[in-house]
Amino acid sequence: MSVQSSPTDMARQVSCANCPLRALPTFRAFDDEELAFVSSFKRGELSVDKGATLLSEGSNSAHLFTVLGGWGFRYKLLEDGRRQILNYVLPGDMIGLQGSLMGKMQHSVEALSPMLLCMFERDRLMELYRGYPGLAYDITWIASREERMLDENLLSVGRRSALERAAYLLAFVASRARKVGMGGSGKVEIPITQQHVADTLGLSLVHTNKTIRKLLDRKLVQWRDGGCKVLDIDGLMALADWTGLDESTRPLL
Amino acid sequence: MSVQSSPTDMARQVSCANCPLRALPTFRAFDDEELAFVSSFKRGELSVDKGATLLSEGSNSAHLFTVLGGWGFRYKLLEDGRRQILNYVLPGDMIGLQGSLMGKMQHSVEALSPMLLCMFERDRLMELYRGYPGLAYDITWIASREERMLDENLLSVGRRSALERAAYLLAFVASRARKVGMGGSGKVEIPITQQHVADTLGLSLVHTNKTIRKLLDRKLVQWRDGGCKVLDIDGLMALADWTGLDESTRPLL
DNA sequence: CGGTTGCTTGAATATATTCAAAGTTAGTGG
DNA sequence: CCACTAACTTTGAATATATTCAAGCAACCG
Questions:
Q1: Percentages helix, strand, coil for chain A, rounded to the nearest 5?
Q2: Disulfide engineering: A249 pairs with which of A28, B52, B69, B131, CB 3.0-4.6 Å?
Q3: What pTM does this model have?
């Protein structure tokens, strides 16, 4: 449950070519020209504490981010405070794209742990589209991937039982985390509270607690240190009738 | 509840420049060059009956479509047959983009009424990205718009009460329909059954029926001819605490 | 130590599902 | 024109699932 975050003494700590994320097999290789552009597109790094609001609904953010490290989540609120968590954001994910394309943000993003982000300027997005069609295609691909994850989440909230939903959620987040090297060789530990789980599944806190208990009893997960340690992803997947994300590699901007 | 669909005697019935949809104020104006490319990108028209499956989960469709007329919906199934409707598709919407970008379809699309679609070849998508960055941007914008709608749907299914959910759904679909000229000067009639509503809201058919009854009692909608006539969109919006899609204009491919 | 945050529990209540059946409507074929 | 069917809507009752309310507990922090 740790994230490397060092004080921001320089505007540019990690060069894109040496980005540790890019070395992971999940991400497709970029050629030199693409890498050079992405490097120049990068305007700085942002590091935030756990609990920080990165982007908020209704605002008109001038930036676009790629997560370098840490965990976060996207959510929406109703007037009276009811909250729905839409998806989680992990290293390699892009945030703020919706806002960059369409003006105002329609959702908020909050950090679940300390986070380190790569910052891009939305104004240069058109330049990317003009000069780098391959990267433009990648951005559409990334938007489409988010859509696919939302489809799955909606299926889950709409049609799975509480137990299946919880199993799906934890398997889903843990398997995404694995792919970006979180948890290393051991088990993934997700830094969420049961309130976050409740707000993702569309259930009350009390009922979520009782549902998670069943997963604990089956030894599929452990709950500790204010987080969830996922012991048996395959078991969770079987319980939820979920076959996993069938991604081979994906782009990293 | 009618859709103009004439027999397909020619491969190309409507030229893009004269596309009746394009004339609507919802859609942004395209310049001649863009219009010429879109026209050349178009490979034909597809007209299908109510109930037809346009795209199905797991398949590897070679095509991309824009809806010219009629109603449809996107959905996913669980192994045991439980169905979740993810979103509705209306004239001006693009379908099959996810499949085109990422290979296999992860959801299915079915026609709710007779539909007329404009067909594009996925192989030429890269050509579009290379030669027409403005259109490439538009496609990303379209993907992002779908994501935004899914965010709203997820908020609704996860956090709204049954009554609020039903009100939101009908207001949402009706207001999208209005924008593309469906219903003309009168009230919008949505060609869905209560089973569709149930599968969208994540509720059982029986409970959905009892919930819709409350909307009927409040005279917000009427149910007839196997469809829903939306009488009072503002009333539905107020009930659901939903402020509407804040779109000005959007691209039409 | 006192305060806060997060987890846990039981009981009362509310919401939603399942089961079973019947009514309605439009369409089909005799 | 009528009987028959299929698809959709409606209803009531029994049951299951989930929420709310109300406490209490454990860990952590200043």
A1: 40, 20, 35
A2: A28
A3: 0.94
Q: Which domains does chain A have, with CATH numbers?
A: 7-142 (2.60.120.10), 151-240 (1.10.10.10)
Distance CA B145, CA B152 (A): 11
Cβ pair A180, A252 in contact under 8 A: no
Q: Is A70 helix (H, G, I), strand (E, B) or coil?
A: coil
Unique residue bearing structure tokens 């756990």: A50
Residues of chain A with C-beta less than 8 angstroms from the C-beta of B80: 241
Distance from A17 to chain B by nearest Cα, in Å? 24
Mind listing the pLDDT tens digit for each residue in A171-194? 999 999 999 999 888 999 999 999
> Is the shortest CB-to-strand distance from A17 to strand C under 7 Å?
no
